[in-house]
């Protein structure tokens, strides 16, 4: 297993995050050598500037947190985030389309974003707390078929975050064709290790420092 810090996307996505909060996030990411910071797209350029001359990547969320924006809006946001320096994109799947059984629309939404970033890592957020098991299976299949490099459990803004059962199911469906990112509610070392042992290759959390220092985070977010 690689060092635990290399699994972590150090995350700050709350609506009230300030410029100084993002600067602090980046300083923490450099100090603990996390894989990336994950921020809203308006802060990508700031994060990129703060992280220059470091090995920490910048991840931007797209269509966040609902996934219900038009495909054109998601593509435009993706292109801007990439222009601003994003290394990876975490986009939210359109749950309404999925629950309407409009699978072509779900797929086309993801493909359009992937086509705008063919060489970059795309993670598709399924928001599993709103999905039945069969829907998780279908969402995973659609995301992978549409070009997702990772399938991700949660935004952290729904009614629940990652669960061990969901990650186990997603790993089985991915079958090596995509990687798994567990996110939402991962706040301590043991929980992080449980997800990694199940096969998660990335963790989205605002509690990265607590995780790598063996503490339990009191953070109520993500």
Automatic annotation (TrEMBL):
CDD domains associated with the record: DeoC
Organism: Mariniflexile jejuense
Record-level Gene Ontology MF annotations: deoxyribose-phosphate aldolase activity
Gene3D superfamilies in the record: Aldolase class I
UniProt function note: Catalyzes a reversible aldol reaction between acetaldehyde and D-glyceraldehyde 3-phosphate to generate 2-deoxy-D-ribose 5-phosphate.
Pathway: Carbohydrate degradation; 2-deoxy-D-ribose 1-phosphate degradation; D-glyceraldehyde 3-phosphate and acetaldehyde from 2-deoxy-alpha-D-ribose 1-phosphate: step 2/2
Catalytic activity, as annotated: 2-deoxy-D-ribose 5-phosphate = D-glyceraldehyde 3-phosphate + acetaldehyde
Protein's UniProt name: Deoxyribose-phosphate aldolase
Statement: the UniProt record of this protein carries the keyword Amino-acid biosynthesis: no
Group of enzyme by EC: lyase
Predominant place of localization: cytoplasm
The encoding gene: deoC
Active site (UniProt): 90 (proton donor/acceptor), 152 (schiff-base intermediate with acetaldehyde), 181 (proton donor/acceptor)
UniProt-listed InterPro entries: Aldolase_TIM, DeoC, DeoC/FbaB/LacD_aldolase, DeoC_typeI
Highest taxon of source: Bacteria
Enzyme nomenclature, EC number: 4.1.2.4
Keywords in alphabetical order: Cytoplasm, Lyase, Schiff base
Pfam hit, one: DeoC
Localization: Cytoplasm
């Amino acid at each position: 297993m690689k060092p635990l810090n290399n699994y972590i996307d150090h995350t700050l996505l709350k609506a009230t995050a300030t410029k100084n909060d993002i600067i602090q996030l980046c300083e923490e990411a450099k100090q603990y050598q996390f894989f990336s910071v994950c921020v809203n797209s308006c802060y990508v350029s700031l994060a990129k500037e703060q992280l220059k001359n470091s090995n920490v990547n910048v991840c931007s969320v797209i269509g966040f947190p609902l996934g219900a924006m038009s495909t054109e809006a998601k593509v435009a946001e993706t292109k801007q985030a990439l222009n601003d320096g994003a290394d990876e994109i975490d986009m939210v799947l359109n749950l309404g389309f999925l629950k309407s059984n409009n699978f072509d629309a779900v797929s086309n939404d993801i493909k359009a974003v992937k086509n705008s970033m063919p060489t970059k890592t795309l993670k598709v957020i399924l928001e599993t707390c709103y999905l039945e098991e069969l829907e998780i299976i279908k969402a995973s299949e659609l995301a992978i078929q549409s070009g997702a490099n990772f399938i991700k459990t949660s935004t952290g803004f729904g009614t629940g975050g990652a669960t061990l059962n969901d990650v186990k199911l997603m790993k089985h469906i991915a079958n090596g064709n995509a990687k798994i990112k567990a996110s939402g509610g991962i706040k301590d070392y043991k929980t992080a290790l449980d997800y990694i042992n199940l096969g998660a290759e990335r963790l989205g959390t605002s509690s990265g420092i607590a995780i790598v220092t063996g503490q339990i985070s009191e953070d109520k977010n993500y």
